[in-house]
Amino acid sequence: MTTSHFYPVGTPGQPWGDAERAQWLARQVRQRSYADDVLSAIDTLRTRLDVETYGEVVYGDARFPLMAVRSRNWQSGLPTVLVTGGVHGYETSGVHGALRFAEAHAAEYAGRANLLVVPCVSPWAYERIQRWNWDALDPNRNFQPSSPAQESAALMRLIAPLRGQFAAHIDLHETTDTDESEFGPAKAARDGKVFEAHGIPDGFYVVDDTANPQPEFQQAIIQAVERVTHIAPADEKGEIIGSAVVAHGVIHYAMKELGLCAGISDARYTCTTEVYPDSPRATPEECIAAQVAAVCAGVEFVCEARYAECDSRGN
Fold first, then answer.
1. Whole-angstrom Cα distance, residue 75 to residue 55?
2. Residues of the chain with pLDDT under 70
3. Rounded to an integer, what distance in angstroms lies between the CA atom of residue 277 and that of residue 224?
4. Residue pLDDT, tens place only, 15-29
5. Cα torsion at 168, 173, 175, 177 (round to 10°)?
6. Average pLDDT value over all residues in the chain
7. Which label site among 14, 95, 115, 198 has the fewest CB atoms less than 10 Å from its CB?
């Protein structure tokens, strides 16, 4: 629904200019350490996985190396899966879910799948528990040619040589109370619009691609996660965050049209996960476990699909 909501930057009804963006930026406070939380965890993976720096984000005098981990002994005949977290830096379980998956489960898929894991796409935003980057841009609406978002452009360069080779891409996200208390109102203020609230769904759900729906893949993920935490129900309109629920815990978005991360790989199977860390029915640990369960289910699905295809061909 449309609601009025005062945001302390800008003038209602007028899009921000440089002064308002500078005022917003001055409000952002570093609250945690990318080096301590993410880079140190990635360092521990070097004995088992290939670790690479695929770029750098530079904002003011701050520089952040962008890191990815890959399966060792990459094999061209295996299904390739891309896992991304922290496209929105404030969505903590996405970052730590990707790290946990790489640490605890990547070895299980050696010889079965090639894995490319990017745990934290937006390190500046991770440190500030923020959705946007330094420029007040949402990286998850800027996976487009000539992207103005450093984070988005760097990730697209990383996957460009493999584009079209991915079997699946699983992008790990959260829907939080701050989506409607902070980030939604900020976006409306930035764009000179009125904030529209849809309510925060209580539970896990996934976003499939409107142009390429894969219901069996999504349900495999939902079924796995349901063993860890609860699935978000539809609201009274049969929707989640303003989109129609098309199956248990599943909605659709136009991924490429909207410039979403899950649309960059040309994978057959794509999924954006969403957990609700503010739920009274879930703990932060359960949210991380739900992300891990989603990734494992997605990788298992494409592995099984590949072997079923090989069997049908008599290979």
1. 24
2. 1-5, 307-315
3. 18
4. 999 999 999 999 999
5. 180
6. 95
7. 14
What amino acid is encoded at 25 in this protein? L
Block residue for tokens 């360092």: 43
Which tokens in the block code for residue 6? 């005062």
